[in-house]
Amino acid sequence: MTKEQQGEVCELIRHYTRLRIDNILMSGMLLASEESGKPVEDWLGQLRILRQLPAHQAALKETEWLIAQVRQTADEESLMTLISSIPKSGLPN
Fold it and tell me: What is the pTM of this model?
């Protein structure tokens, strides 16, 4: 795997992680809205606030170990072994 390909895989992992976390946060907002019977006010502002929470930052930080491993892996077989070691539940939420 070339350095360029490794960089692209790392960016893919970062984007996927951010999107997955945002999906969970937005689902929570929708469920809270449904339970309260009130529409979500300023959902984008709420999402920005939630992104600053320590739990959100910790989840992003936890995926950096995977990214570091991808950067250090020289061959595709090692990378596939690493990816297959990810729990079936997926990356950290």
Answer: 0.70
